[in-house]
Design goal:
It is a single chain. The strands form three sheets. The chain has an eight-stranded mixed beta sheet with strand order 4-3-5-6-7-8-9-10, with helices on both faces. With 349 residues, the chain is an alpha+beta fold. The radius of gyration is 21 Å and the shape is globular. It is built from eight helices and 15 strands. The structure holds 2,5-anhydro-1,6-di-O-phosphono-D-glucitol (AHG) and manganese (II) ion (MN) (2 copies).
């Protein structure tokens, strides 16, 4: 190359490398308003939490005191893993002194956690599942984090978070981070669903795909069939239907985030129905089902408890659970038709 020739700059890939998460949020909102700046900064902090969790997971087997149980039991009655505690604390730490988030509510804490110094300015609440699928941690398989942001509109005088008992349409942003072969963040602020890949050499989440659309139908059904005899007839009949028809295949990893990520990209349905022992199923509305329902609807899919849209359900307590049927429109509707037919017959109609 002579000194007069301009160097060939790979413009497209440079542009792409510069589309970081915080820039993307501002572009989406087409504004530099204080609210847009807040949301961009909050997403940036969530991304930082994701990087810290990803770093720890990538070294989990090499470091002492990362794997295994703490010996404690959480509010759900489930054994707590060391990674659950670490990731729970990471999300709190990234928001301390941020001025952004006044309160955090998670699967691992009985009551919401307040950061009082942020409260005069940051009327936002982060709801989160710090490690989703934690049984996968010790065997080096995929796990995730789930998050949602809500604006705090009422006072929470007794600190129990009763003002959070509202439907999922109150969410202003939601998403997940999947810690797989690479770390990916998928989010929506109500303007479509977008994914970002963590580039470890940059330490940045870089735009991977914009406006993700879930296919209207897909081959995958994802559920724990070990619960077959714990389910009611409607779900058993649906399962028999997919066994008897061509074109279905089962996939289940034990981590909701990974299973739903597959369905978001390729179509299909994820189900966690009620069981005899747990009529409301296992998944928690405020920080698991509602954020994922927000995302999947934004991608053109559907999320239901079998009878009702997940985003319309008002929880009766912070850690309320709900059956979940989520994914491609047609596949969710098929499951709903089995549930609703059985309901009609039970009602004698
Ligand atoms: P968590 O690790 O946050 O408690 O969530 C685990 C959830 C979800 O990720 C997964 O789909 C489901 O539990 C698996 O439950 P089963 O083992 O009952 O299938
Ligand atoms: Mn979970
Ligand atoms: Mn969890």
């Amino acid at each position: 190359m002579t000194s007069l020739q301009t160097p060939a700059i790979p413009e497209h890939s440079l542009d792409r490398d510069c589309t970081t998460l915080s820039r993307h949020v501002l572009q989406q909102l087409q504004s530099f308003s204080p609210e847009a700046q807040d949301l961009s900064a909050i997403m940036n902090r969530i991304a930082l939490a994701g990087k810290l969790v990803a770093r720890r997971l990538s070294r989990a087997g090499l470091m002492a005191d990362v794997l295994g149980f703490t010996g404690e039991t959480n509010i759900q009655g489930e054994s707590v893993k060391k990674m659950d505690v670490y990731a729970n604390d990471v999300f709190i730490s990234v928001f301390k002194q941020s001025g952004l988030v006044c309160r955090l509510a998670s699967e691992e804490m009985d009551k919401p956690y307040y950061i009082p110094e942020n409260c005069p300015i940051g009327r936002y609440t982060l709801l989160y599942d710090p490690i989703d699928g934690s049984s996968n941690v010790d065997i080096n398989l995929n796990v995730g984090s789930i998050f949602a942001i809500r604006q705090q509109k009422e006072d929470d005088l007794d600190g129990e978070g009763n003002d959070l008992l509202k439907d999922g349409q109150e969410q202003i942003a939601a998403g997940y981070i999947v810690y797989g072969p690479s770390t990916m963040l998928v989010y929506s602020i109500g303007h479509g669903v977008h994914s970002f890949l963590l580039d470890p050499s940059l330490g940045e989440f870089i735009l991977a795909q914009e406006n993700i659309k879930i296919p209207d139908h897909g081959p995958v059904y994802s559920t724990n069939e070990g619960n077959f005899w714990q389910w009611d007839d409607a779900i058993r009949d649906y399962t028999r239907y997919v066994h008897r028809h061509e074109g279905y295949t089962a996939r289940y990893s034990g981590a909701l985030v990974g299973d739903i990520h597959r369905i978001l990209m390729q179509g299909g349905v994820f189900l966690y129905p009620g069981t005899v022992k747990k009529p409301e199923g296992k998944l928690r509305l405020l920080y698991e089902s509602a954020p994922l329902a927000f995302l999947v609807e934004q991608a053109g899919g559907k999320a239901s408890n079998g009878m009702k849209r997940i985003l319309d359900i008002v929880p009766d307590k912070l850690h309320a659970r709900s059956p979940l049927v989520i994914g491609s429109k047609e596949d969710v509707s098929l499951v709903e038709s089995f549930i609703q037919d059985h309901q009609r017959r039970a009602n004698g109609n």
